[in-house]
Q: What sequence folds into this?
């Protein structure tokens, strides 16, 4: 930092300096150093005391001899505190050692007849020890009795702070990741363009100073641009923003978001524009829009976009008096694919279904994937409402051929709910609800088929909603119960086991069929906690049977495919320990969907259960993708033939042959065979001839409650 002696060399005469080139006598300095001079009474002191700048006069020994009011304010000393003391008290300590030498050198090279006006920045020190920047001019004045240094000093703390802040802002602007443009409010010529803008556009700073915003190829000309800025100039807006494209020097373009403000207090006024490159944002927004409107797997419109198109089509048909149709399609075989073959196979099935559906439609129709296995078709314009039924038949025909997935043929079995507009409604929500009601009914049909909406179906939809709502708290309300259906050994005609079956009675719905609520348990995931409740409750019933002496009756419990997970064995062991059962006391019945998974994890889990001593049975054999080859891979002890094959066994030769083949092949693999749904003596006799091991059905007993089961077993000796 410069010291007081670093300022005021001859020949400067800087414009505006506080100390002009005037003879010393004109300031009345004669006698200034004479002992006893009353300085405060002199006209000179009165003048200097009114000055805005600090005046400090120092004698040849660097003692302060004059200190005006401005100096008192700046240095925070009273005049009486400094007169006669060394000027070093006004300097930071690090500058004091060299100060005397520099002041004498200044005296030797100065013209004693003139006051010098060059300004230099120095560092001063206040009474409290704080340092401050100052701007000073100094001259050596020859006087009677010697001479004096006259220092004129101005505190520039605020100016320095402002300059530093301006410099800081300049660096921030220059280094900003946004493009920043400052242009004249009248000519629109750039006066400042930061580095980011120059690099993005490919122009030098000099080139940018000869350009205006219109040179960046805005999509509007001079008049349009002036109109855009008018709200800023008339004060109706503080900021205007818009999106446009900037064109680089090489002709390429990129999208930007621009915000413009007017700085009125600048001289002359200027506009400041901040432009942000939004190319990536626009790409991201496009991607987000695509994700929000299209299904990622099939690239078909999703529910949101489909609903928008449905609303538009319904409104147009209401206005022109035409007809339109809506179909909801659910692939009922999809759940089996997911459960048995995994997610990848499910994705293949959905993509193949989308391809087949698209092949049934006109170019004006819309195909959408709403969720999982559910699709929707919008026929926005048809000549008559019955035409939508023709389209439905075409779709059903497209799925007659099975889909091949990893070498396995799978039937997807579509169910179709159909509604038309404006006949069935003009609001998209109502139309979707009506189509869903029709779809619900179509799912319940055997086999699944198409169903047209009618007002009667609303009751079914409401029931479905009530079931889903009621199941959410059914377990905590104690609404579930178990019934038990005995199994009979055909050779000894004794009860050898019983199957636990879940029942639900709701306060509002009454007794709900398992066919209605079990799929909802699966769909919502409630099957996990409910399944554990079934397992423990059935085990407790088995414990009661054993305690009453019926230790030879094994308890069979159905196991959902969603329960087949790594944590299940530990859950089972815990329940067996709590109920005091051995693994050999229970039998777990699994469906073909579990067997079809054919995965290492499933085989390992089932083998772990078998190694524990748990008996495993394959339930409902013959209803799905039956293949005895799967049985070789699984540690199964029992095969249960589904009731659908037993119903006509006595009269239908084909069913009888299938049952014979299952029994023979099962026995060849050392599996026991159980026939379900046995209701007649004829069926029983036929099964005995075929060598079936056990039966279960109404012929012997319906499913009964626990106390009734106990009575049946206690009173049973022979079948009369």
A:
């Amino acid at each position: 930092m410069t010291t007081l002696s670093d300022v005021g060399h001859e020949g400067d005469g800087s414009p505006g300096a506080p100390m002009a080139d005037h003879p010393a006598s004109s300031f009345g300095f004669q006698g200034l150093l004479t002992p006893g001079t009353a300085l405060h009474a002199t006209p000179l002191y009165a003048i200097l005391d009114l000055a805005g700048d600090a005046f400090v006069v120092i004698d040849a020994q660097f003692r302060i001899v004059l200190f005006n009011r401005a100096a008192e304010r700046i240095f925070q000393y009273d005049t009486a505190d400094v007169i006669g003391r060394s000027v070093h008290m006004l300097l930071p300590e690090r500058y004091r050692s060299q100060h005397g030498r520099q002041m004498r050198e200044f005296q030797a090279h100065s013209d004693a007849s003139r006051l010098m006006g060059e300004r230099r920045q120095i560092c001063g020190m206040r009474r409290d020890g704080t340092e401050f920047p100052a701007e000073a001019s100094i001259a050596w004045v020859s006087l009677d009795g010697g001479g004096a240094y006259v220092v004129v000093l101005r505190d520039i703390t605020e100016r320095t702070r402002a300059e530093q802040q301006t410099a800081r802002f300049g660096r921030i602007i220059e280094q900003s990741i946004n493009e920043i443009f400052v242009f004249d409010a009248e000519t629109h010529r750039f006066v400042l363009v930061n580095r980011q803008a120059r690099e993005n556009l490919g122009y030098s700073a000099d080139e940018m100073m000869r350009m205006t915003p219109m040179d960046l190829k805005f999509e509007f000309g001079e008049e349009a641009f002036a109109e855009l800025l008018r709200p800023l100039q008339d004060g109706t807006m503080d900021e205007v923003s818009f999106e446009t494209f900037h064109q680089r020097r090489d002709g390429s373009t990129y999208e930007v978001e621009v915000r413009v403000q007017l700085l009125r207090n600048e001289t002359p006024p200027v506009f400041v524009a901040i432009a942000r490159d939004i190319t990536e944002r626009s790409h991201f927004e496009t991607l987000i829009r695509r994700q929000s409107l299209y299904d990622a797997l099939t690239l078909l419109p999703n529910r949101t976009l489909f609903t928008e198109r449905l609303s538009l089509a319904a409104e147009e048909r209401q206005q022109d008096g035409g007809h339109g149709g809506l179909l909801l399609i659910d692939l009922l075989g999809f759940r089996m694919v997911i459960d048995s073959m995994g997610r990848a196979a499910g994705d293949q099935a959905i993509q193949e279904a989308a391809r087949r559906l698209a092949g049934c439609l006109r170019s004006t129709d819309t195909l959408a994937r709403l969720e999982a296995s559910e699709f929707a078709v919008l026929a926005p314009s048809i000549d008559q409402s019955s035409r939508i039924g023709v389209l439905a038949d075409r779709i059903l025909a497209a799925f007659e051929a099975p889909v091949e997935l990893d070498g396995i043929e799978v039937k997807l079995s579509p169910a179709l709910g159909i509604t038309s507009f404006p006949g069935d409604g003009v609001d998209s929500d109502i139309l979707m609800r009506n189509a869903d009601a029709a779809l619900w009914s179509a799912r319940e049909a055997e086999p699944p088929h198409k169903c047209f909406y009618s007002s009667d179906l609303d009751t079914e939809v409401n029931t479905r909603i009530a079931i889903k709502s009621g199941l959410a708290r059914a377990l905590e309300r104690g609404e579930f119960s178990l019934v038990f259906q005995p199994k009979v050994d055909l050779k000894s005609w004794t009860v050898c086991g019983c199957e636990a079956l879940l029942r639900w009675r709701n306060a509002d719905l009454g007794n709900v069929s398992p066919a209605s609520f079990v799929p909802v348990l699966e769909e919502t995931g409630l099957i996990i906690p409910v399944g554990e409740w079934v397992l423990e409750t059935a085990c407790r019933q088995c414990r009661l049977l054993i305690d009453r002496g019926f230790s030879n009756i094994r308890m069979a419990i159905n196991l959902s495919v969603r329960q087949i997970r790594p944590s299940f064995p530990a859950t089972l062991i815990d329940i067996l320990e709590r109920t005091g059962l051995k693994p050999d006391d229970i039998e777990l019945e699994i469906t073909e969907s579990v067997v079809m998974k054919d995965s290492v994890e499933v085989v390992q889990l089932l083998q772990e259960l078998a190694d524990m001593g748990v008996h495993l049975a394959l339930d409902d054999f013959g209803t799905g993708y039956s293949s005895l080859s799967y049985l070789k891979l699984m540690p199964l002890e029992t095969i249960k033939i589904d009731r659908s094959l037993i119903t006509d066994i006595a009269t239908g030769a084909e069913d009888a042959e299938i049952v014979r083949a299952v029994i023979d092949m099962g026995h060849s693999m050392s599996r026991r065979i159980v026939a379900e749904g046995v209701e007649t003596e004829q069926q029983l006799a036929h099964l005995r001839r075929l060598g079936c091991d056990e039966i279960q059905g109404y012929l012997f007993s319906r499913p009964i409650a626990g106390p009734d089961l106990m009575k049946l077993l206690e009173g049973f000796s022979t079948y009369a």
Notes: The CA atoms of residues 278 and 348 lie 37 Å apart. The first strand starts at residue 54 and ends at 59. The two ends are 121 Å apart (CA to CA). The longest helix spans residues 527-547.
